[in-house]
Design goal:
single chain; 8 helices; Rossmann fold; two-stranded antiparallel sheet; alpha/beta
Protein backbone atom coordinates (compact mmCIF):
# COMPACT_ATOMS: atom_id res chain seq x y z
CA UNK A 1 0.00 0.00 0.00
CA UNK A 2 1.32 3.42 -0.98
CA UNK A 3 0.50 6.65 0.82
CA UNK A 4 -0.54 10.09 -0.36
CA UNK A 5 -0.34 13.06 1.97
CA UNK A 6 -2.85 15.81 2.61
CA UNK A 7 -1.50 18.73 4.63
CA UNK A 8 -3.94 19.70 7.40
CA UNK A 9 -1.76 21.76 9.74
CA UNK A 10 -2.65 25.47 10.01
CA UNK A 11 0.38 27.73 10.28
CA UNK A 12 0.15 30.38 12.99
CA UNK A 13 0.35 33.92 11.50
CA UNK A 14 2.62 34.86 14.43
CA UNK A 15 5.30 32.69 12.79
CA UNK A 16 5.66 35.50 10.24
CA UNK A 17 4.77 38.53 12.39
CA UNK A 18 6.72 37.87 15.59
CA UNK A 19 10.46 38.56 15.53
CA UNK A 20 12.70 35.52 15.74
CA UNK A 21 15.34 35.04 18.39
CA UNK A 22 18.58 33.12 18.06
CA UNK A 23 18.25 29.60 19.48
CA UNK A 24 21.83 29.82 20.67
CA UNK A 25 22.23 33.17 22.41
CA UNK A 26 18.70 34.60 22.45
CA UNK A 27 19.57 37.66 20.37
CA UNK A 28 16.51 39.08 18.62
CA UNK A 29 16.47 39.20 14.83
CA UNK A 30 17.08 35.71 13.47
CA UNK A 31 16.62 32.06 14.45
CA UNK A 32 20.39 31.62 14.29
CA UNK A 33 22.75 34.56 14.52
CA UNK A 34 25.99 34.68 12.53
CA UNK A 35 28.11 34.07 15.62
CA UNK A 36 26.24 30.93 16.71
CA UNK A 37 26.11 29.69 13.12
CA UNK A 38 29.88 30.08 12.91
CA UNK A 39 30.31 28.06 16.10
CA UNK A 40 28.42 25.16 14.53
CA UNK A 41 30.33 25.41 11.26
CA UNK A 42 33.68 25.34 13.05
CA UNK A 43 32.76 22.23 15.05
CA UNK A 44 33.90 19.23 12.99
CA UNK A 45 32.21 15.87 13.58
CA UNK A 46 34.90 13.17 13.45
CA UNK A 47 33.07 9.93 14.23
CA UNK A 48 31.73 7.43 11.71
CA UNK A 49 27.94 7.22 12.21
CA UNK A 50 28.05 3.57 11.16
CA UNK A 51 30.61 2.23 13.64
CA UNK A 52 31.27 5.12 16.01
CA UNK A 53 35.03 5.05 15.50
CA UNK A 54 36.83 8.38 15.13
CA UNK A 55 37.99 9.05 11.57
CA UNK A 56 40.38 11.54 10.02
CA UNK A 57 38.26 12.30 6.94
CA UNK A 58 34.71 11.89 5.63
CA UNK A 59 35.51 8.28 4.79
CA UNK A 60 35.77 5.55 7.41
CA UNK A 61 38.64 3.12 6.79
CA UNK A 62 37.01 0.58 9.08
CA UNK A 63 33.68 0.56 7.20
CA UNK A 64 35.09 -0.20 3.75
CA UNK A 65 31.66 -0.75 2.16
CA UNK A 66 30.13 2.37 3.70
CA UNK A 67 29.92 5.54 1.56
CA UNK A 68 31.57 8.87 2.28
CA UNK A 69 29.45 10.54 4.94
CA UNK A 70 29.08 14.25 5.77
CA UNK A 71 27.57 15.14 9.16
CA UNK A 72 26.99 18.50 10.83
CA UNK A 73 27.40 17.13 14.33
CA UNK A 74 25.99 15.18 17.23
CA UNK A 75 22.39 15.87 18.17
CA UNK A 76 23.07 17.82 21.32
CA UNK A 77 23.18 21.42 22.49
CA UNK A 78 22.26 24.08 19.95
CA UNK A 79 22.06 21.67 17.01
CA UNK A 80 19.52 19.55 18.89
CA UNK A 81 17.43 22.64 19.68
CA UNK A 82 17.46 23.77 16.05
CA UNK A 83 16.40 20.36 14.73
CA UNK A 84 13.67 20.01 17.36
CA UNK A 85 12.17 23.46 16.73
CA UNK A 86 12.31 22.95 12.98
CA UNK A 87 10.63 19.52 13.04
CA UNK A 88 8.25 19.68 15.97
CA UNK A 89 7.50 23.38 16.40
CA UNK A 90 7.31 24.10 12.64
CA UNK A 91 9.83 26.95 12.79
CA UNK A 92 10.52 26.79 9.06
CA UNK A 93 12.98 29.68 9.15
CA UNK A 94 15.44 27.24 10.72
CA UNK A 95 15.40 24.99 7.64
CA UNK A 96 17.48 27.23 5.35
CA UNK A 97 20.01 27.74 8.15
CA UNK A 98 20.49 23.99 8.61
CA UNK A 99 20.66 23.51 4.85
CA UNK A 100 23.32 26.22 4.51
CA UNK A 101 25.44 24.65 7.25
CA UNK A 102 25.26 21.16 5.75
CA UNK A 103 25.80 22.43 2.20
CA UNK A 104 29.01 24.10 3.37
CA UNK A 105 30.29 20.68 4.48
CA UNK A 106 29.69 19.12 1.08
CA UNK A 107 32.40 19.31 -1.61
CA UNK A 108 31.89 20.64 -5.12
CA UNK A 109 29.45 18.24 -6.74
CA UNK A 110 29.09 16.98 -10.33
CA UNK A 111 26.25 18.69 -12.17
CA UNK A 112 24.41 15.38 -12.51
CA UNK A 113 24.22 14.94 -8.73
CA UNK A 114 20.78 14.16 -7.29
CA UNK A 115 19.92 14.74 -3.64
CA UNK A 116 17.57 12.04 -2.39
CA UNK A 117 15.69 12.73 0.87
CA UNK A 118 14.60 9.71 2.85
CA UNK A 119 10.79 9.55 2.94
CA UNK A 120 9.04 10.99 5.97
CA UNK A 121 6.11 9.09 7.48
CA UNK A 122 2.93 10.58 6.05
CA UNK A 123 1.23 11.17 9.40
CA UNK A 124 4.30 13.14 10.51
CA UNK A 125 3.93 15.34 7.43
CA UNK A 126 0.29 15.94 8.29
CA UNK A 127 1.11 16.73 11.92
CA UNK A 128 3.96 19.13 11.09
CA UNK A 129 2.40 20.65 7.99
CA UNK A 130 5.39 19.95 5.77
CA UNK A 131 7.93 17.30 4.78
CA UNK A 132 10.98 18.41 6.74
CA UNK A 133 13.56 16.24 4.96
CA UNK A 134 12.37 17.28 1.50
CA UNK A 135 12.27 20.91 2.62
CA UNK A 136 15.96 20.90 3.56
CA UNK A 137 16.96 18.72 0.60
CA UNK A 138 15.50 21.33 -1.77
CA UNK A 139 17.44 24.08 -0.03
CA UNK A 140 20.72 22.15 -0.25
CA UNK A 141 20.12 21.32 -3.91
CA UNK A 142 19.57 25.01 -4.69
CA UNK A 143 22.74 26.03 -2.85
CA UNK A 144 24.85 23.38 -4.59
CA UNK A 145 23.30 23.82 -8.04
CA UNK A 146 22.09 20.22 -8.33
CA UNK A 147 18.76 18.40 -8.51
CA UNK A 148 16.57 16.93 -5.78
CA UNK A 149 14.31 13.94 -6.38
CA UNK A 150 11.92 11.91 -4.25
CA UNK A 151 13.10 8.47 -5.35
CA UNK A 152 11.70 6.57 -2.37
CA UNK A 153 8.04 6.21 -1.42
CA UNK A 154 6.49 4.91 1.78
CA UNK A 155 4.94 1.44 1.78
CA UNK A 156 4.24 1.39 5.52
CA UNK A 157 3.55 4.09 8.08
CA UNK A 158 5.55 2.62 10.93
CA UNK A 159 6.77 4.94 13.70
CA UNK A 160 10.43 4.69 14.65
CA UNK A 161 10.55 7.36 17.34
CA UNK A 162 10.67 5.52 20.67
CA UNK A 163 11.32 2.11 19.10
CA UNK A 164 14.36 0.08 20.13
CA UNK A 165 17.21 -0.77 17.75
CA UNK A 166 16.00 -4.22 16.68
CA UNK A 167 12.48 -2.89 16.00
CA UNK A 168 13.84 -0.01 13.93
CA UNK A 169 15.96 -2.35 11.82
CA UNK A 170 13.00 -4.63 11.12
CA UNK A 171 10.67 -1.74 10.31
CA UNK A 172 13.07 0.05 7.99
CA UNK A 173 13.58 -2.99 5.78
CA UNK A 174 9.99 -2.82 4.56
CA UNK A 175 9.03 0.80 5.26
CA UNK A 176 9.75 2.21 1.79
CA UNK A 177 10.71 1.33 -1.76
CA UNK A 178 12.06 2.95 -4.90
CA UNK A 179 9.23 4.57 -6.83
CA UNK A 180 8.13 2.34 -9.74
CA UNK A 181 9.48 3.54 -13.07
CA UNK A 182 12.42 5.42 -11.52
CA UNK A 183 15.59 5.02 -13.55
CA UNK A 184 18.75 4.65 -11.47
CA UNK A 185 22.01 5.44 -13.28
CA UNK A 186 25.57 4.35 -12.56
CA UNK A 187 26.82 7.73 -13.81
CA UNK A 188 24.75 9.84 -11.39
CA UNK A 189 25.99 10.78 -7.92
CA UNK A 190 23.22 10.23 -5.39
CA UNK A 191 23.28 11.98 -2.02
CA UNK A 192 21.09 10.16 0.48
CA UNK A 193 19.90 12.76 2.97
CA UNK A 194 18.25 12.36 6.36
CA UNK A 195 18.00 14.61 9.38
CA UNK A 196 19.13 12.35 12.23
CA UNK A 197 20.97 9.02 12.27
CA UNK A 198 19.92 7.04 15.33
CA UNK A 199 20.43 3.35 14.56
CA UNK A 200 21.02 4.01 10.87
CA UNK A 201 18.26 1.55 10.00
CA UNK A 202 16.47 3.77 7.47
CA UNK A 203 19.69 4.98 5.84
CA UNK A 204 21.12 1.46 5.53
CA UNK A 205 17.89 0.22 3.99
CA UNK A 206 17.86 3.09 1.47
CA UNK A 207 21.53 2.51 0.67
CA UNK A 208 20.90 -1.19 0.03
CA UNK A 209 17.88 -0.53 -2.19
CA UNK A 210 19.68 2.14 -4.20
CA UNK A 211 22.70 -0.10 -4.78
CA UNK A 212 20.48 -3.02 -5.79
CA UNK A 213 18.80 -0.72 -8.33
CA UNK A 214 22.17 -0.02 -9.95
CA UNK A 215 23.59 3.10 -8.26
CA UNK A 216 27.35 3.05 -7.77
CA UNK A 217 28.15 6.65 -6.71
CA UNK A 218 26.48 7.32 -3.37
CA UNK A 219 27.17 9.89 -0.65
CA UNK A 220 25.43 10.20 2.70
CA UNK A 221 24.56 13.57 4.26
CA UNK A 222 23.13 14.02 7.76
CA UNK A 223 22.25 16.90 10.02
CA UNK A 224 23.13 14.96 13.16
CA UNK A 225 23.76 11.59 14.77
CA UNK A 226 22.17 10.30 17.93
CA UNK A 227 23.07 7.05 19.67
CA UNK A 228 20.47 4.43 20.54
CA UNK A 229 21.59 1.35 22.47
Amino acid sequence: MLYNVKITTIINPLDWLAPHSCRGCGRTGDVLCDCCKKNISLSIFKKCPNCGVEKSSNFCQRCADFPICFVLGKREGLLAILIHDFKYNSVRAIGPKLAELLASRLPDLPKNTVIVPLPTATHHIRERGFDHTFFIAKQIAKLKGVKVQKIFIRTANTVQVGADKSTRLAQAEHAFMIKPGTKISQTITYILFDDVWTTGASMKSALKKLREAGASNIIIALLATSSLD
